[in-house]
Specification:
Order of helices and strands: HHHHHEE
Radius of gyration: 29 Å
Strand order of the largest sheet: 1-2
Largest sheet: 2 strands, antiparallel
Number of strands: 2
Structural class: mainly alpha
Shape: elongated
Distance between the termini: 76 Å
Strand content: 5-15%
Helix content: 55-70%
Number of domains: 2
Number of helices: 5
């Protein structure tokens, strides 16, 4: 097999069954009181877990890229997109009656009108 084929095989192989068997072997080896089997099963479990983590990191990166592309970075970060948006986020309604709204903003306090 070529190096590329091996890499693709490792990326696409589901590892839940081998991980489960290695974990079971590690647990069962405790009752057998055999340190070598326990250490071997633990190392196998560690190796499979490392490969599984590597597989998972790639998937998370791809999923995150899809979300950023689909939502847009500004929507994801929830940053204001205009001066009006920034102003609306900085004020709160202090009172309201039909035809009249009183707004309160800490950022406008102390500013002289132009």
């Amino acid at each position: 097999m070529a190096k590329r084929d091996i890499k693709d095989f490792i990326k696409n192989t589901p590892l839940s069954v081998p991980m489960g068997l290695a974990a079971l072997g590690t647990a069962v080896s405790l009752w057998c009181a055999n340190k070598r089997i326990h250490a071997l099963c633990g190392m196998v479990w560690l190796g499979i877990s490392a490969v599984h983590t590597w597989q998972h990191c790639g998937k998370v990166k791809k999923d995150a890229a899809k979300v950023v592309e689909k939502m847009g970075i500004m929507d994801m970060l929830n940053l204001p997109q205009s001066k009006l948006d920034l102003f609306i986020r900085s004020v709160e309604v202090s009172s309201y009656i039909p035809g009249r709204v009183r707004l309160y903003s800490k950022s406008l306090m102390g500013n002289k009108g132009k």
